[in-house]
Each structure stands twice: as C-alpha cells, then as structure tokens.
Amino acid sequence: MSAASLRGSTRKASARDRLLSAADELFYAEGVHTVGIDRIIDRAGVAKASLYSAFGSKDELVRAYLQRRHEARQARILSGLERFETPRDRLLGVFDVLAETAATPGFRGCAFYNASAESPAGSVVEQISDHNRAWLRGLFVELARDAGAKDPEALAAQLVILYDGTSVGARMDRSPAAAATARTMAATLLDAATA
Amino acid sequence: MSAASLRGSTRKASARDRLLSAADELFYAEGVHTVGIDRIIDRAGVAKASLYSAFGSKDELVRAYLQRRHEARQARILSGLERFETPRDRLLGVFDVLAETAATPGFRGCAFYNASAESPAGSVVEQISDHNRAWLRGLFVELARDAGAKDPEALAAQLVILYDGTSVGARMDRSPAAAATARTMAATLLDAATA
DNA sequence: CGAAGCCTAGACAGATCTGTCTGCTATTGT
DNA sequence: ACAATAGCAGACAGATCTGTCTAGGCTTCG
After folding, report:
1. Residues A55-73: tens digit of each pLDDT
2. Whole-number distance in Å between A95 CA and D21 C1'
C-alpha cells in the first residue's frame, strides 16, 4: 500500500490531534478568548511552532475546534436516534439525546453560541454556527415530516427554540432538568401539529 | 434643603453615569472580555483615574453593568405588561415584549448569558445571572397561576425555556422571527395546562 | 480669597497574548 | 547511510490589558 496515504493519521497521536483535543477541552470549558495559546500547547504537550505549522493562527484553530464540535454533534445525535423505531419516538429522541448530553459533567451549553458570544460580529465563528444551525433545523424538518406534521417547517422552528432553550437552561441553572421539560413540550406540540 | 442630598445625582451627567452608559453599549455589543478599559473611558470621555475611583476594578464595572441590565429588563417587561387586561394576555404579553426587544437594532441576545459565556465558572457574573433568572421564573409562576394553570411551576419552567430559546434564536439567526413562534407555542402550552 | 472635591491627561509598571525564529533531536523512506 | 520530515524547547518582538500614580484644572462653598 502507499505509505503516504497513512501518514498523519497513523502513529500514537499526531501533534495536530493532541492540539485539537486540548483546544476542545479548554476552549469549551473556559472560552475561546479566555484561553491562550500557551495553555493549549502546554496541555497538548506540543511546541508552539508545531501549533503554528499545523494551523497557522489561533483563529484557524478555533475554526477547527468548532468544526470538530459540529461533526461530533451530528454523530452523537444521528447515532443516538438509531435506537428508536417510530418517527414520533425519533423526533422526541433528539431531546433524549440532549438530556444525556446536558447531564454530562462539564456541560457548558452550546459551544457555538458560547464562542459567538465572545467573538466580533462577522467572524469565522458565525459561518460555522450558521452551518450547524442549518443542519439541526433541517434534521427537525425531516423528523417533523416523517412524524406526520401538517406544517413540518413550522414545527421544526418550534423544536429549534426548544433545543436552544434547553441548552441555555441547563447551562445557566446548572441542571439538566430542562431537557425533560422540553421533551414533554415537544410531545404536546407534536400532538397539536398532527391533530 | 441640604445640598449634599443632591450631589452626585444632579449636574449634567456624572462621570459614573457616563461610564455606565459607555460600558453598557460596548460590553453588550462586543463582550465584557473583548472590550478594554481604554475603549470605555474613551467613549465616556472620562479619565482612567475616574473609572477606578468610581468602581475600583473592571470586575466591579461589569457587575454594575449587569445590575443595570437586570433592572432595565424588569422595568421593560413590567411596564410592557401594563397594557394587557386579561391574565392570559399578560402571560403571552411577555413574548410580545420580547418580540419588540429582539427586533431592536443591535440586539445581541441575553446580556447575562453572553457575559457568562466568557467568564470563569464562579465569577461575579454568575450571581447576577442567577438573580435575574430567579426573578423571571418567579414572574412566570405568578402569571401562570393567574392564568389558571393547574401546575404553575411546571408551566413556568416551560415558559422559561421558550424565553431562553427565543433569545438564542433571535441572536444566532439574526432575525426576531422566533419571538412570534414562541408566543404561539406559549398559547398552545397554556391551553394544554389549563384544560 | 482660599481650601476641598472632583475631574482630566497621560506616563508608567507589570502581566499576558499572539506570532516568529533559532537550534536541536528523533524518526522514516529511499 | 543519508536526507527529509516532524516535532521539541524556549527566547524574543510587539501589541494590549489592568491598574497606579503624578500633576494640574475647574467649580463650589465658607
């Protein structure tokens, strides 16, 4: 086989991967602006030159961090929904997955909103956030249609609000209780939207 | 009258007030961590020494900024609800007021959440945020009880999620549309909670 | 008139942040 | 064996941030 095709993804854990993991923990826990480069290379056990050779700038590291969060959220939700059978259960299942996430130790709300709150208006954060939100909204539209909603777009808009509100509530109240509440609300609204 | 009793609240606008106004605009628009002291004294047209003589530290200025936001939100909601007659309209009216706020140019979501997102875990921001959230939740409990909800606490928990979700959605999607959606949801949930 | 407060302008100290650069070591493919 | 690659360690530059301090101006009241 061509050895070149493996490079960079083999070996223990490349500097790039360790940097991404360290950035993920620190940026999410303390904020992208608060955490400095030095803390990240320290935790990753990597030289500063390696960071700049791999990412070029802190901004690009932030973008990679959010990109990774985006993919992780997609994977977490999609794989979490596989266990459900009926369309209705799958739609409500998004809130079951969210409940698990919100109960995770160290949960600090939505990484995209958090990063957005400390970034200037037209920054790199905005693009990825938009992308992530568009995906989630699209998922809800699909699930709403499958579940027989008369107006899937309208129901999806409602579910996005529930998702966002749960995320905020769980973070600010330091309790995952909001997720269960939101699931109940989603069930009520789904009933009203299919009747 | 005792002249001393007027001092500090009279005159054009004291350095303290101008500082608070400048901090309010800049902190809300760009974030408490991003905006430096120099930008604030610049906009306020005030000497740096005056800031430190009035507030003692940037942290204390942040606290005063959030305290002011808290009082402004209370006043805005309470006065906005006066125009409604029935308990049901008053409850839903919270989302009418929120719709107006979210449509304001320069709306950037919840000042408390934004500040919290860029502050360490146990900071001064947390206390004021908790205080603000407790007040809002209490208001919703009252309104829910007046509107005849069978379980006012439960309905209030739902309404808080709607409020938070609207705030996030309006900011991240750069559109106040979520507020109208949330009002519809609130009506549906209120009907379900009084039936 | 003259003292007391409040304010301004700006230099300064000390810390911290991003990003660059120089040397050195270990591994890997040919 | 040899060259290329990737990574490490850390000094360094330049900017920026919080907070302190000096020196002086303007108003107000006794």
Report:
1. 999 999 999 999 999 999 9
2. 57
